């Protein structure tokens, strides 16, 4: 990733308002698959051929930009290899909605912050659901406490961000309900948890201690359960693990390009 793109990941943007307005996630799946196989065809897919039946050129351009910035940037070649392995093999039976959740969280700072500080805090605390008011309150406090970021979002923008975030999480099957959003019970498979470790490594490449990785809550596994879950997976040879009573260090022993082969083609 060039330096300009790397810096863009640290900035806040409101792409969630566009992503959350999509009818469903099929647009994102198709765009990712198209981009990874033929990068030059993404514009043709969305804008020129309008395969998703978007009414105006403005909306087509807006969605193309939001999908590019939210899902089609890659931190490095390992990151690209991982997404290619996941999205271009029809034989893989995986909850790709979780992959979208992790990919967007990795690339979009606002989505990551809301997910960590509102969604996952509520989910892991045992609450039954989450409301727009929870997100609005968080954003108002965040903006008030971080004036140096100069996030001049109006009340209307904050409301839209909150609503569209909940819409997107519902389309990812992480929430259900219309007005009142309740959490769905998310059971992370062994394969998904292993892949999560690769996203965690991309987020903090110098940090081997998964317990101090900022995005650990996005695994949907509580800190109390994570050691036992990972211990069982390390015994199967998916990665090496060392726990000294304080640090839970993970060493990835398979490449980003080959981990899906290991997970899904092993006898």
Commentary on this structure:
With 267 residues, the protein is mainly alpha-helical. The chain contains 13 helices and five strands. The strands form two sheets. The protein has a three-stranded antiparallel sheet with strand order 1-3-2. Helix 4 (42-48) packs antiparallel against helix 5, helix 7 (96-107) crosses helix 8 and helix 7 packs parallel to helix 11 (190-203). The protein is globular, with a radius of gyration of 19 Å. Mean pLDDT is 88; it is low at 2-6.
Using only CA atoms, what is the Rg?
19 Å
Summed over residues and divided by their number, the pLDDT gives a mean of 88
Task: Assign the structural class, choosing from mainly alpha, mainly beta, alpha/beta, alpha+beta, or little secondary structure.
Answer: mainly alpha
Q: Helix share of residues?
A: 55-70%
C-alpha termini separation: 36 Å
- Output the number of helix runs: 13
């Amino acid at each position: 990733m060039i330096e300009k793109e790397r810096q863009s990941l640290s900035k806040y943007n409101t792409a969630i308002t566009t992503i959350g307005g999509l009818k469903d996630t099929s647009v994102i799946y198709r765009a990712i698959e198209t981009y990874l196989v033929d990068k030059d065809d993404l514009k043709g897919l969305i804008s020129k051929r309008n395969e998703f039946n978007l009414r105006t050129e403005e909306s087509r351009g807006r969605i193309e930009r939001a999908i590019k910035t939210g899902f089609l940037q890659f931190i490095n070649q390992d990151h690209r290899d991982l997404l290619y392995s996941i999205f271009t093999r029809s034989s893989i039976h995986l909850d790709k909605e979780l992959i979208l959740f992790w990919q967007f969280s990795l690339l979009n700072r606002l989505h990551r912050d809301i997910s960590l500080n509102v969604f996952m805090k509520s989910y892991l605390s045992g609450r039954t659901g989450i409301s727009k008011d929870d997100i609005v309150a968080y954003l108002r406090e965040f903006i008030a406490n971080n004036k140096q970021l100069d996030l001049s979002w109006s009340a209307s923008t904050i409301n839209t961000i909150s609503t569209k975030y909940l819409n997107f999480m519902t389309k990812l099957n992480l929430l259900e309900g219309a007005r009142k959003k309740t959490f769905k019970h998310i059971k992370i498979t062994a394969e998904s948890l292993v892949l999560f470790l690769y996203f965690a490594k991309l987020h903090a490449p110098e940090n081997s201690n998964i317990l101090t990785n900022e995005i650990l809550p996005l695994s949907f596994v509580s800190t109390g359960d994570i050691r036992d879950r990972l211990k069982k997976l390390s015994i199967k040879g998916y990665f090496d693990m060392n726990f000294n009573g304080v640090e839970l260090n993970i060493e990835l022993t398979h490449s980003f390009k080959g981990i899906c082969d290991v997970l899904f083609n092993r006898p």
